[in-house]
Amino acid sequence: MSRGLSQILPTTKHRFAVGFAGAGIATLALLWLVQEPPQPWWLWAAFAAAYAVFSWRSVEVNDRLRGSPGAMVTMTAAVVFGPGAGILAAASMAAFGLLTPEDVTGRRWFQPAVNFGQLVLSNAASAVVLAGFLWLADGPAPGWTLSAGRLWIVVAGSAIAALVQGIVNFRLVAFIVDRVYGQKMTKPWSHLIQINLGTVAMGFLGGLLGAAYLLVGSVMLPFIFIVFFTGYMAFESFAMLRLAQESTLKGFIKALEAKDLYTRGHTERVAMYSEMIGREMGFNGTRLERLRWAALIHDVGKLAVPRELIRKRGRLDEHEYDVMKRHVHLVEDLLDHIEFLHPMVQIAANHHAHYDGRGYHGAGHGPGETPSVEACIIAVADSFDAMTTTRSYRVAMSQRYALEELRRHAGTQFDPEVVEAFIAAIERSGRNFGSVLELTDEEARKMAEEGVAAMREADQVHGRDFPVAPLERREHSHG
């Protein structure tokens, strides 16, 4: 981090922490003046305790976005306490959901401060929406009663209010993250449609539970808390499945990179470059995640390619090249039966297909057909990394050389739009991913033959401390 940025961030953090914490306190103070205190207090305390527990044990539902059945608890409380006290009841519960285990262990102060403010605001906004529906269900008469014939108004209002809560919460979090950390440190969230649908379902259930309490009585409380817990288990199962999927990908990557020293880190860099291009081209979070996962598995088929072929020094002959081309089909054979990877496999299997229809294709594409945009993106990212990192048969090339090569083959091997998007993203990043040496392809190959010292000198990705065995004893990869 630069000195200038390190000086700006603390100031920005303090401003946002104070601003959001102040907004939360002011909102609660205003509600205390205009709303009745929720009664009975023990019932509100029970709901607040459930909200606090679920917030403490919230799980990651996508990259850096956590979820819990808090919307269900909020809607239940808002319905039970009615339009006269429900807004205060729902908003004040947020004060008990501001901490996570990471905040405590990391001694973080910024996250709890802004969480308090944005949770109070989002809970209050949703409760205001729900209060309007509750007024429709009960009419202008004083007090709060619910007839079974108006149940549908309460349930529909709870679902809509929960959606409002999710949207306001998401917008506030995105605003904070973008202003404090900047776009370079964040990326779009994935699966927002599915997450919002889940929030609507939680709101629907919350309204139903609150109505059940009003119509049946306190005997419903054990059932209500069982449903709360069931909702949390749904979130936890989703998070565990996501973690298992990511662990599966990491296992394949480690197995592949164990076959060839020089491809260590290759898949992660290809995924990083692919994400840079996807963001430049305006991909949303879900499409960006699918692109990243496809990039991470793009070379998994090489697990079934003979080790001696992968590590061969020099150019491949025709027969060896045909064998190497099979890895795009092998990735299908190895992974296509894994359901969650199927869309990514179709992308990865065609990253050697050319924009003009040449190259070699996986299933679903034939000669003469243009591959998908995602496959074209991985093709550019893969080729750039191959040119700018050291392989045993050729030292790393400069970034300028690699970008010129991409432009030279745009329209034939590479998608021109993808190439220009990548160059724009690279220039915007201000980083240099290639060698500091300006070499031709032949010079780079000759340097590789001269030995380890020259290869390390040219390699700016792996670094001078990259562990390379003595030239006369090591095997060489083709990469």
Question: How is this fold's topology laid out?
Answer:
Elements: H1 3-34, H2 41-56, E1 59-62, E2 65-67, H3 70-93, H4 101-105, H5 110-138, H6 151-181, H7 192-216, H8 221-257, H9 266-280, H10 285-296, H11 307-310, H12 318-325, H13 327-335, H14 342-348, H15 373-388, H16 399-408, H17 416-429, H18 441-450, H19 452-458
Antiparallel strand pairs: 1-2
Helix pairs in contact: 1-3, 1-5, 1-6, 2-3, 3-5, 3-6, 3-7, 5-6, 6-7, 9-10, 9-15, 9-17, 10-14, 13-14, 15-16
Summary, kept brief:
It contains 19 helices and two strands. With 479 residues, it is mainly alpha-helical.
Can you give a write-up of this model?
With 479 residues, this protein is mainly α. It folds into two domains: 3-243, no CATH class; 258-458, Orthogonal Bundle (Hypothetical protein af1432), CATH 1.10.3210.10. Helices cover 65% and strands 1% of the residues. It is built from 19 helices and two strands. It has a two-stranded antiparallel ribbon. Strand 1 (59-62) and strand 2 form a beta hairpin. It starts with a helix and ends in a 21-residue tail after the last helix.
